[in-house]
Amino acid sequence: MFRDVVKKLIPQPVFNAIEPYGHWGEAIVANFRYGFPARNLKIIGVTGTDGKTTTSTLIQKMLQESGKKVAMMTTISIDLGDGPKPNPTRLTTIGAMALFKQLQQIRDAKPDWLILETTSHALAQRRVWGVPYSVAVMTNVTHEHLDYHKTFEKYRDAKLRLFKLTNSNRRGLRTGVANADDPSGNLFASAVKRPITYGKTVGELRASDIKTSPTASQFVAHYQERKLDIKVNLPGSFNVSNSLAAVGAGIAVGLTNQQIEQGIAALTSVEGRMNTVDEGQAFTVIVDYAHTPESFEKIFTEVKPLTKGRMLVVFGSAGRRDAAKRAIQGEVAGKFCDVVIATEEDDRDEDGEMILESIAGGAQKSGKILDKDLFKVHDRTKAIEKVIDLAQPGDTVLLLGKGHEKSILGNTGKRPWDEVTEARKVLQSRAKS
Q1: To which CATH superfamily is domain 43-90+112-266 assigned?
Q2: DSSP letter at 270?
Q3: Lowest pLDDT segment from 27-41, 83-97, 273-287
Q4: Residue 256: helix, strand or coil by DSSP?
Q5: What is the DSSP letter of 370?
Q6: Does the pLDDT value for residue 7 go beyond 90?
């Protein structure tokens, strides 16, 4: 497809010169095709394994509440500055031709800022060539996408490229906001002229007096001589870290304490992130996009103390993606949860039962017993029905991995899916029976 599109756009000698560069070549052509659309945009890039969309949305809300017009492109949605529309591609950073076409539309809409979630794939493939980042934000770097990058170091270094691109933009702020609680944080901070490091206990931007509840967190943020009273209306202490990253971005672009405080407090939810499904049942049902071993551990650690009864979890693992994490996911789930149900996520053209077998093997290492407290139910609807039937008053049911996504990719193609809707249907049907 790349060859066919590009050959129509440029002279043959130029095509011959750039074709070997693949995605990078496509980005070069896309810039010329759409008139280097990002050139006059002020762009905040957000990268990391977990927390990108939540952090991006917090930054957007903060800027909007301060009176700015803000465009945003994330895993969930594309917002040209006039309201979000679903991102149909399921790609956090879309292909170069589509990306720069969207950037042209965003440029024409004349936003004050663009927030661009930027993936390791896009950075490694240089699909964002020609994007002049002004501020870079790093949430964390953990085990993910090693099917593509092969080693953790290559994965980390791909994300590090965002900070290097930001530092090379002499017309921008050349500022990087890096997580000092992450082992890679100092490496990221060292890649920019103006680093802002953040963390719960370390870093220039720190949190103190942290108070958490099932629905929100409050803390005091300290940066140099500044003190900010932050309330983030999202559950989980990991959202303290996400909101600190957003505070760092607010400081980088020159917002006042009041603008930052009011902006963070204004966000009440993010689609597919710790969303509660309540149909009057005597147990809690939570839908979340968590799909890595590290994000599993964060959620389980947060939810366990708030659960009066047992913790039950339903999740899968994507086909044609990082196969090594499947058993690790199962092992982490088996360690924290009382009941584990392995199901489909996006098998693609892999054998779904074999994926479940890998997950189950990890759960068994944590002591789970098949058909007792460990179940393999490939059909995701049936898996949700199973966990709802097993749930008792005071339990917490976690439905992980799909979050905001609106489809499941199987070996026969794509079929529509909405996790919250499916859970609601099952709860309603059980309430009537």
Answers
A1: Mur-like, catalytic domain (3.40.1190.10)
A2: B
A3: 83-97
A4: coil
A5: B
A6: no
- Cβ atoms < 10 Å from Cβ of 347: 23
Name the CATH code of domain 275-432 (choices 3.90.180.10, 3.10.20.310, 2.60.40.10, 3.90.190.20): 3.90.190.20
Q: Which residue has the higher pLDDT, 296 or 120?
A: 296
Percent of the chain with pLDDT over 70: 91
384 to 125, 310, 378, 393: CA distances (angstroms): 38, 16, 11, 17
Question: Rounded to whole angstroms, what are the CA distances from 85 to 1, 48, 273?
Answer: 26, 23, 17
Residue 87 sits at φ, ψ, to 5 deg, of -85, 105
| CA gyration radius, the chain | 22
**Residue 219: strand pairing partners:** 230
d(CA 52, CA 119): 9
Strands 311-315, 374-376: parallel, antiparallel or unpaired by DSSP? unpaired
10 burial level (CB within 10 Å; 0-12, 13-18, 19+): middle
The answer to whether residues 294 and 331 touch, using CB atoms and an 8 Å cutoff, is no
- Say if CB 347 and CB 323 are below 8 A apart: no
